[in-house]
Structure formats: structure tokens, C-alpha cells
Protein 1
Amino acid sequence: QSMGRFGDEFVEARRAGLESCLARIGRHVVLWNDDVFRLFLEADDFATKARLITEARVAAEINGTAPGSSSAGLFGGARYKEKDEWFARRMQELDAIEEELRALLRALDYSQRQRRELAISHGELGEAYLKMAGQELNAGLSGSLTAMGSLQQKLKVLQGRQGSSDVASFQLTTDEYIRMIGGVRLAFAARGRAHTQWQGSLGELLRRRKILEGYTQHPGRASAERLAQLKGEIARAEIRTETSRNAFDDVSLLLKHEVVRFDAARVRDFQATIETYLASLIDTQEEIVVLWEAYLASLRTDPVQ
């Protein structure tokens, strides 16, 4: 049933996409326990509670109280130039995969349109046969035309099904992975921001050490109080640098694991999708063959006189 300005096909596509997304999140060892995800599944007032959680997370990012957060990391910064060969190679591979997936999605869209046009053609041909049967005076020929018209109507249903639900499932998987590659890019960018934060902390530490070195080489230029203050600043800068470096290493390790997981899931999902799609194609063609064989058998059993 249509919902407002959204047609049945659109609503069904969104429903299938939501179901697939929820299943994918539920299979992830970390995401399945996320507060917002659990709220979506369990809470009666999801919108209100989810907004509160999101606002709290954004506030933590802005205030720098969230783990590994900074306002510069949240709102952008200089583009990170990848230095790790593994990450650079994987990003190039993802770019190539995305390009091929977009080409596949265009081909699937075209195939779906062709299937629908074929279904419409079967329907129009069936109507023409039925009209001819209604005008035909020969009872035998009229019966054969009627049977052919009914056959074309059945072919319309089969081709329409093939062009909607079966191809749509393939399209859904393809579109999902195009979107997920965008998510992987965001994860790579987060790693770049973590590196920028680490280098910023390191630069600040080196600057303060250089100041202390200058004071050490020229005694009397700074008071004992200033030297103690500077040493405290250096100690805190060392902690921030070590923390940000560890955060960068943790993000890098986690991202490597997630990219490997992504590749394995992509191969598994596309293999399953292709198998399902091919099985559906075979089933449809077998049904079509049965219909034609039954029609041919009826012509042989009761030939037109």
C-alpha cells in the first residue's frame, strides 16, 4: 500500500535496506552494543532519547572530553597525506572497487528497466491476443488465441517479478557497499585527524623543550619559578603526545581489522547475492519453459480445424 507520496516500490526498497542495515549492525562485535542502536530496537521514544545521546556526544567532542576528540578533528583540518603503504594501497583498491560497483549498479538499473519493459510488452501482446480471440469466428483458433493471451499475461507477471524483487535485491547489496566505501573513507579520514593531533602535540612538546634548552644554555634569563612552570608544561605535553600517539596507533590497528572484516563481508555478501539471483533466474526460466510446453502440448492435443 502506498504511503503518502511514496509508492509501494520505494517503501519496499527502504524497508529492505533498513532490514539489511540492522542485520549488518547486529552482526558487528562493537556496533551491536551501541547505545543508539539498542535504543532504536528497544525504546518507545527513540527520537527523543537518541537526540539527547547525540547532543551529549557532540558536546563531548567540542569540549574535548570525548576519547581522542578535539574540535579540530570534529570540524576538519589539513588533509592528511598517507605515509603507510598498506593504507595507501587499500585506499586505491577501494577507489577501484567503488568505480566498478557504480558501473555494476548502472547496469543493474538498465537491466531492471529492460525487464519491466519486457513485462509491459508481454501484457500488451496478451491483450492483443485476447481481443483477436474475441473477434475470431473459428472456435478452435479462438481457443488457441485465448490460451496464448493468458500465457502472455502469466509471462508479464514472471518478468515483472524478475525485474522488481530479484534485481532489486542485487541492487540493494551493490548500493549498500558503495555507501559503505564512503564510510570507510570517513574512517581513513579519522585516522588522518588522529595523526594530525599527534603531530600537533609533538610539535608543541618540541617547542617547549627548545625554550627550556635556551633557558638552560643561558642561565639567569628565566626565574626558578618560570623554569618549574615550563618543566610542568613539558611533562603535561609529553603525556598528551604519548596519549595521542597511542590513540593513532589504536585507530590504525582497529582500522586494519575493520578493513579486513569489510573485505571478507563484501565477498561473502556478493557471493550469496549472486547465488540467490542466479537461482531466481533459473526458477523463472523453468516456469517460462513449463508454460510454453503446456501451450505447445495443448496445440498438439487439440489442433485447429
Protein 2
Amino acid sequence: SYDQYGSADPMEGMGGGPGAGFSGFGGMDDILSQMFGGAFSGRGGHGHGFTSQGEDIEASITLSFMEAVNGVQKTITITPVVHCEPCGGQGAKKGAKKGAKRKTCRTCRGTGQAMFKMGGFHVQQPCPECSGEGSSISSKDKCSACQGRGRVRERKTVPIDIPAGCDSGMRVKISDMGDVPADGHGPAGDLYVKVRVLPSKTFRRKGSDIYYDLQVPLTTAILGGTLRVPTVDGDVEVNIKPGVQPGDELRLRTKGVRKVNSTGRGDQYLNLNVKLPTELTSKQRELVEQLDAELTGKPRSDPAKESTESTESTDGSEQGTKEKDGFFSRIKKDFENFKKHDDK
């Protein structure tokens, strides 16, 4: 079964090599010494017959941006502790005398720890009699595969379903894929896979929302129009209203990332960056200067034309209005031609 858990810092370097995916143990001896923390942790020496829980293990996986958005099935490699198959987890080799089994250490009484006095201090160390195992089996009866421990590491390849909308820091739980108990016959622990998502070159993500910087040509910003915009579902046409300003933001509803364990989706936000031309032809510059003169009331760059237009505009209100309308129509038409040229 698969469960999703939220936030945990992503971890690297686990799940792919020997010892990867193993929760904090350096070797089999460490595992067996850990189990003798006593009854406080529900662990004890071999052969006590009580049920204990195996340790959880961790692994990590790296996904591309779109794999996390859409969901994907991956495989990871782990090396959990399992029962030794040749001896069935008992530690005694096949053919050993009937009744050959692990016996509780008399020195540490099954705790795996012994107290030593050093310089007036009492120091707890692994028991030298049983090497910290808490129990022992005669060398002639030991299983050669596990050296009498009854547990070995086994390399496994595990399929994992990554849900759509998964993000960095999330964990996917796979039940019963962790370590078996170091003693007893209880259930195995669980496997927790931490997810790391690589950044996108196109989008930015915050939770289930997507952000995109949209370059808007100057003429489109002034006159309005439509622009093609990429989304995680493919390109869409977006209407740009006349007069948009640099830094304005548009919202595309439900064009974001699917929310984990939900049918809902986030939104996509477009940050508008007005794209200014770096070079102008003489005709384009003349048009911009005319627009600047009309918007700001500054004198035109051509005094003769400015004088002529001023005289004509004072001949009569009706004629002046007609000339003004004609000018703006011409400006709009020229800008539309400028826009076509700029788009090319």
C-alpha cells in the first residue's frame, strides 16, 4: 500500500547502493547491538518468542519537473535486512543437531551490554562474551550464510507509484518493505521514499500554483491582442487587454498542478514583462515620437509640421476634431503595422 506524507527535507545518496535505504545502521553487528537496548524498545535476545516491529528504512528519488506534475511509476533499489533463507532466520545451519539453537548469554543475560569500570567510571560496552548479540550459538552449528545471526541484507528492486502533484520534501510510504525485526517474528518496518524534484527551465512552482514570465511586445501592451502561453497541459491562447503595465499579473484558473490525493488543481500566474525593442528604424522612431508628442503634449520634432497642424486645428472645432481623429487612426494603423513587423 502507498501513503503520502508531507514535509521532510529531501535526502540524497540513499536507495541506490550497498547499505542505502538503511536507517542509521553501519553493519549487521550494529543492528544486533541496537536490538539489545532492552525491553524499552520491544527488542531482546534471540529466542525470547515475543513479537517485535522491524525498523523503518528510507530511500530517496529524484524526479523531473513534469514527472512530479503528471505522476510517474519508478523503481528504486534498497537493501533491507531480511530473514536468512538457508537457516530460516534461526542461525543454525542445516543438518545441525536437533535442538541446536541460540542460547542466552550468561554474562550479559541477553542484554548484549556489559558494564566495565574505568578510572572510577562505569562504562557500558558490548558484551565480550557474545559480541553484543545477547545470545550465541556454537560455532559448529552456525549457518555459514549469516554467521549464525539469522539475518542478512538482501538487494531488492521495488516499484513505486509517484502521485501527480508530488513535490520536493514529500514522502511516499510503502508498507512492510523495511527491515524485518532483528529478533522474533514480528512484521517488517516500512519504506519511506523522499522525493526531490528538479527545477523547470520554463516554470516556477509554489505549492500547487505555477508561475510563468510572459514577454509582451510593446505594441501588444499598447493595443492589446492574443499571445500563446505554455502551460503544464500544453500551449493556450491568452487575451491581452490594451494598456497592460510591466509587472501586471494574469491568472489562469485550474492551469496549475494537481493537488495530491485530491481532484483539485492550482492556478497558473502570468507575470507580464513588456518587451521593448532595442533598435528602431527611422519610420518606427518617427511613429514613437508622434505618439510621445500626443501623450505628453511635448512639441513635435518637426516644427513645420507642428505649426501646420496647430493652424489647421484652430480653423474650426468640427474640422479640428476630424483632423485629430484622423491622426489617431493613422497612429493606430501605423502601430498595427509596427506590431506585425515586431512580431516577425
